[in-house]
């Protein structure tokens, strides 16, 4: 073999290697392009699915005037007297953003102790009513919770409202409190159940509205206070009309 043959062989081998490299580069480029295309399709599909399953609000916002008219100023023998004197969370910028509507009223009937009513509402419930739970706002106002138990208020033969019954004490003042929450169509009593109902609704594709309703009376007699609050709640539901009942207890 001559030096020329060696050089020629080297040149020919180099050409074959060059062509092989070019082919491999082309194949790699095609593979990369297909991979990018598949990734792009996957990302686009994920975005589309996320848009499809983003929870949507289930009810429209309600303005203050309409919300206030849901609850009559005359409830049986009780009449709306004032809106002052109720225990509420500390007023600050945060608490003002935690609800859309807040109704506070004191009702009197000339006989029993005055009944205080608080309704905190949000058309998009994301746990924001937690600030209005008596276990939170009463201690913030200097009260000690000396009783906290589950109870029910019968509305008719088929339905009773599950409530919490509390006794809050601040020395010279003892207030008995009854409250319930409505999340969409459900009425969870415990905070954990409230979060669970919200999660289930979100998985179904919607964000429920939420209400916390609280009634209370200042009294030294537990039995009398329980009887007064039970009677008031029954009258409240009975006299509030269809829209008011739906706000208070849902489609029950």
Concise structural overview:
The protein has 252 residues and is α+β, with helices and mostly antiparallel strands.
Residue runs with pLDDT of under 50 for 5 or more positions? 1-14, 43-53
Helix content: 40-55%
In terms of structural class, how would the helical and strand content be classed?
alpha+beta
Average pLDDT, all residues: 78
Fraction of residues in β-strands: 25-35%
Number of domains: 2
Major beta sheet, strand line-up: 2-3-4-5-10-8-7-6
Q: What general outline do the C-alpha atoms trace?
A: elongated
Total of helices: 7
One letter per element, helices H and strands E, the order comes to: HEHEEHEEHEEEHEEHH
Distance between the termini: 102 Å
* Cα-based radius of gyration, to the nearest Å: 33 Å
What does the secondary structure layout of this molecule look like, with pairings?
Blueprint (H helix, E strand, L loop, with lengths): L2 H51 L2 E2 L6 H6 L4 E2 L2 E5 L10 H4 L4 E8 L6 E8 L11 H7 L3 E11 L5 E10 L4 E10 L7 H13 L2 E2 L2 E9 L3 H18 L1 H9 L3
Helix pairs in contact: 6-7
Organism: Sphingomonas cynarae
Pfam families: DUF3485 (PF11984)
Protein name: Methanolan biosynthesis EpsI domain-containing protein
């Amino acid at each position: 073999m001559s030096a020329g043959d060696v050089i020629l062989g080297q040149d020919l081998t180099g050409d074959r290697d060059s062509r092989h490299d070019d082919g491999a580069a082309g194949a790699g480029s095609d593979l990369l392009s297909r991979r990018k295309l598949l990734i792009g399709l996957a990302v686009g599909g994920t975005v589309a699915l996320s848009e499809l399953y983003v929870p949507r609000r289930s009810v429209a916002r309600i303005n203050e005037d309409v919300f206030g008219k849901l609850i009559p100023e005359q409830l049986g023998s009780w009449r709306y007297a004032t809106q002052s004197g109720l225990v509420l969370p500390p007023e600050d910028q945060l608490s003002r953003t935690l609800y859309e509507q807040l109704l506070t009223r004191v009702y009197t009937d000339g006989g029993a102790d005055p009944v205080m009513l608080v309704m905190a509402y949000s058309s998009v419930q994301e746990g924001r009513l937690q600030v209005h739970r008596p276990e939170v706002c009463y201690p913030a106002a200097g009260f000690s919770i000396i009783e906290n138990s589950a109870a029910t208020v019968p509305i008719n033969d088929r339905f009773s409202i599950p409530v919490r019954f509390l006794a809050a004490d601040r020395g010279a003042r003892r207030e008995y409190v009854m409250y319930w929450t409505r999340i969409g169509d459900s009425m969870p009593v415990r905070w954990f159940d409230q979060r669970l109902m919200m999660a289930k609704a979100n998985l179904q594709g919607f964000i429920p509205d939420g209400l916390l309703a609280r009634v209370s009376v200042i009294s030294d007699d537990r039995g009398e206070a329980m009887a007064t609050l039970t009677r008031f709640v029954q009258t409240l539901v009975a006299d509030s009309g269809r829209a008011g009942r739906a706000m208070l207890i849902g489609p029950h």
